[in-house]
Amino acid sequence: MIRNIILPIFAIVLLASCSGKEKGNNSQNASTEAIPVKVQKLEKTNIANTVEQTANLIADEQVYYAPASTGRIKQIHVEVGDRIKKGEVLVEMDQTNLVQAEVQLENLKAEYNRAVALNETNSISKQAYDAAVTQYEVAKSNYEFLKENTQMLAPFDGIVTGKYFENGEVYTGIATGGASKPAIITIEKINPMKAQVNLAEQYYLAIKKGTPVELKSNLFPERTFQGTVNIVYPSIDPSSRTFTVEVKIPNQDEALKSGMYGTINFFIGETETIVAPALAVLKLQGSNDRYVFINDNGIAKRVAVKLGRRFDDKVELLSDEIHEGDELVIVGQGRLINGSKLDIQNH
């Protein structure tokens, strides 16, 4: 009876043992199966060496426009947002004083011409001649001053960014209407735009007038604005160990505005480095650690990397374990672990 029970149990154990061996063999075969991948040979590439800094844009020129003396405003010919051309009449002040000065100038001009004619024939004393010339020159200077401050002309092509008085009001010479300085209107030259940037002193010898720069703004993600360094200030701030640089950026279509925030890249030469497709780089779950896989004689070798600069869909790889000529896995890397066999399918 006992013998009859033992035999079936022995058969079950034997069957389980055989089944376990078969599963073990299948698992071993799965672990050694080559994974299809594509690789790319790494090469060193010359890329621009840049310094990146953020900045606020300002107008190339900003003028709080007002006459030199107080007076009644006859007419303001522009509104906020108007484009202006150099020489265009922007503001006219009351012309009473100008008309009086013009009449006086004409009278003294006649006396001046008479004195010049008499002086040519030695028919006038030097004192009288000098007096006529002086009076005429003073009157002429006064007339030109009043004319300049009665008809206010645009000093450059630009845009009106502020208006603080209305026609008929008296300009008092005091800042009003939100202006930070005494002005009737504010005008800006916005082509080009400029920015002042503080850079670390280590770049002082690399940045020069004419150094190319690029501006990028979140408002125009698809555009890159080219410019150059215009001024390198000749001193370094001892507290921050930085120096100031002014850049100018052409703005023909006036897309850039005063106060706009952007990132400026300074190009200070070239450097040789390894650049790879960004998709080839994997991220360790739960951390910021990055890694790639290299073909090591048909075996996947996992290599930790740090990311440098980005160039569209490529990224700079920083690692002492990566060298020119290495084969980087660029397709199929998501299925790999360190030591995986590779089935390289490049054609």
UniProtKB/TrEMBL annotation:
Q: Coiled-coil segments, which residues?
A: 91-149
Pfam families in UniProt: Beta-barrel_RND_2 (PF25954)
Q: Name one GO molecular function term.
A: efflux transmembrane transporter activity
Q: Which UniProt keywords apply?
A: Coiled coil
Record's signal peptide: none
- In its keyword annotation, does this UniProt entry include Coiled coil? yes
Give every CusB-like beta-barrel domain span. Answer: 196-266
Alphabetical GO CC annotations of the entry are: efflux pump complex
Query: Gene3D superfamilies, from UniProt?
Result: 2.40.30.170, 2.40.420.20, 2.40.50.100, Helix hairpin bin
Cited NCBIfam families: RND_mfp (TIGR01730)
Q: Which family is annotated?
A: Belongs to the membrane fusion protein (MFP) (TC 8.A.1) family.
Name of the protein in its database record:
Efflux RND transporter periplasmic adaptor subunit
What organism is recorded for this protein? Candidatus Odoribacter faecigallinarum
